[in-house]
UniProtKB/TrEMBL annotation:
<dbReference type="InterPro" id="IPR015422">
    <property type="entry name" value="PyrdxlP-dep_Trfase_small"/>
</dbReference>
<dbReference type="InterPro" id="IPR050477">
    <property type="entry name" value="GrpII_AminoAcid_Decarb"/>
</dbReference>
<dbReference type="InterPro" id="IPR015421">
    <property type="entry name" value="PyrdxlP-dep_Trfase_major"/>
</dbReference>
<keyword id="KW-0663">Pyridoxal phosphate</keyword>
<keyword id="KW-0456">Lyase</keyword>
<dbReference type="InterPro" id="IPR015424">
    <property type="entry name" value="PyrdxlP-dep_Trfase"/>
</dbReference>
<dbReference type="Pfam" id="PF00282">
    <property type="entry name" value="Pyridoxal_deC"/>
</dbReference>
<comment type="similarity">
    <text>Belongs to the group II decarboxylase family. Sphingosine-1-phosphate lyase subfamily.</text>
</comment>
<dbReference type="InterPro" id="IPR002129">
    <property type="entry name" value="PyrdxlP-dep_de-COase"/>
</dbReference>
<protein>
    <submittedName>
        <fullName>Pyridoxal phosphate-dependent decarboxylase family protein</fullName>
    </submittedName>
</protein>
Length: 471
């Protein structure tokens, strides 16, 4: 195909995606709204995309950029002169490396454990799954959704290699009591990781703007590592994140080296071996271009948008915000049983917005997640008007009800013994004909909502297999 035809086809394919700019997709993407920032990042990415971060001695430009990015992150997030870090491909890799480093540093521990607040990101469960670690989840306060320091402490034992808290947690946007948990972990000789993937690059600026942000970073005694994503509120392209350690001795077990083959001695600082220099250079360019004042301005815009949306949502009959979010994330649930929030999500999709459905878990009922960015500043009134309209439409539709036979069929499924035939039958009952997803998802989400978490995982893994099948 000629080059221009290839690009035209790509543009056509992209028309079916959620919008990545304009503040209308309130999950997955982070838009600064700054004109020219994407072009700068793309130009920087192109300049370094063929360079390989596998060997920093071969490409010293990448080494310098990574060290400068890590230094900037450490300065922002309370890292002292001994703080070190690595640039990774995203928050999940940063979190997994923190778990790996803690596990590898304790080879004497058989069947190691990681203690997590139940609101910790699923990336830590992924790390436990990949690395053969037991994830011990501790329920959070049922009203505030914050980690319970006493319960977290009680869960630590001789097999615990890491304790994890969030700043903020993704589902509700609240900040865990980091100082209390970190102090107890330190008293037991256990590492404490702060997942600040979302909040790390915006909370310090909220504090500078006068917001009462609690202590959460590497300056807190007992915090040994922290993750912060640059492709979130540093507004860099996907995917760049930073994993910081309080000192080099804590990072050493993160590294991997192998001379047990006839080729070059493999030496890796992250989970990847070959690493394109493109994302690193793009992040370096954006950080240097925006600078401290630029990020302060963007944080002010995001903060203003969050405050306007919180106030506006409180004024919509039937909606309430869960917990007391202290960052840029909002969890919105129904305050009465006259409508279904999953229907509200569908109605918002029809109005050109994407709000992310979240299933009920522990004391948190089904809700809608909003990730608010600087790009939402100035558009709050339109979002709130459409949200009020969507709630009214959902009330007219009434709550989603599932046929009794479908609910019974779901209840009778054994996740471990689910067959392809059973899954195909559920797809048919749900209106999914082998691949793709319908435009309206309320009934599908209601079906998944009545399934146990284990069954939901199994169903969605099967569905993922259907989606990723070459035609």
């Amino acid at each position: 195909m000629p080059a221009e035809q290839v690009i035209d086809e790509l543009r056509a394919l992209r028309t079916g995606d959620l919008p990545t700019h304009g503040g209308r997709t309130l999950a997955y993407v982070y838009d600064s709204g700054r004109e020219g920032l994407d072009d700068l990042a793309a130009r920087a990415h192109a300049l370094a995309s063929s360079a390989n971060g596998l060997d920093p001695t071969a490409f010293p430009s990448l080494l310098r950029m990574e060290n400068e990015i890590v230094a900037a992150a450490a300065a922002l997030l309370g890292g002292g002169p001994s703080a070190v870090g690595s640039v990774t491909s995203g928050g999940t890799e940063s979190c997994m490396l923190a778990v790996h480093a803690a596990r590898a540093a304790r080879p004497d521990v058989e069947r190691p454990k990681v203690v997590l607040a139940s609101t910790a990101h699923a990336a830590f469960h992924k790390a436990a799954h990949y690395f053969g670690i037991e994830a011990v989840t501790v329920p959070v306060d049922p009203a505030s959704f914050r980690a319970d320091p006493a319960a977290m402490t009680a869960a630590i034992d001789d097999r615990t290699v890491l304790v994890v808290v969030s700043a903020p947690s993704y589902a509700h946007g609240v900040i865990d009591p980091v100082p209390e948990v970190a102090a107890q972990a330190a008293a037991r000789g256990v590492r404490c990781h702060v997942d600040a993937c979302i909040g790390g690059w915006v909370l310090p600026y909220f504090r500078a703007l006068g917001e009462p942000v609690p202590d959460f970073d590497l300056s807190v005694p007992g915090v040994t590592s922290l993750s912060v994503d640059l492709h979130k509120y540093a507004y860099c392209p996907k995917g760049t994140s930073v994993l910081l350690h309080a000192d080099a001795s804590l990072r050493r077990s993160q590294f991997f080296a192998s001379a047990a083959w006839p080729g070059y001695t493999m030496l890796n600082s992250t989970m990847q071996s070959t690493r394109s220099g493109g994302p690193l250079a793009a992040a370096w360019a954006v950080l240097n271009h925006l600078g401290d004042e630029g990020y302060r301005s963007l944080a002010a815009q995001a903060l203003s948008a969050v405050q306007a949306l919180r106030s506006g949502i409180a004024g919509i009959d039937g909606l309430r915000i869960q917990g007391e979010p202290q960052s840029t994330l909002l969890s919105v649930t129904a305050d009465d049983d006259g409508f279904d929030v999953f229907t509200v999500a569908d109605e918002m999709t029809e109005r050109g917005w994407y709000l992310q459905p979240q299933f009920g878990f522990e004391s948190s009922p089904a809700n809608l997640h909003l990730t608010v960015t600087a790009a939402n500043h100035g558009g709050e009134a339109g979002l709130l008007a459409d949200l009020a309209s969507a709630v009214a439409a959902a009330r007219r539709s009434g709550p989603v009800t599932l046929p009794a036979e479908l609910t019974a069929a779901i209840a009778g499924l054994d996740p471990a013994a689910l067959t392809a035939e059973q899954f195909a039958g559920l797809l048919a009952m749900a209106g999914l004909e082998g691949s793709g997803t319908p435009k309206r998802m309320a009934e599908i989400n209601a079906m998944l909502g009545v399934a146990s978490p284990v069954l939901r995982e199994r169903l969605l893994v099967e569905f993922l297999g259907v989606l990723y099948t070459a035609s």
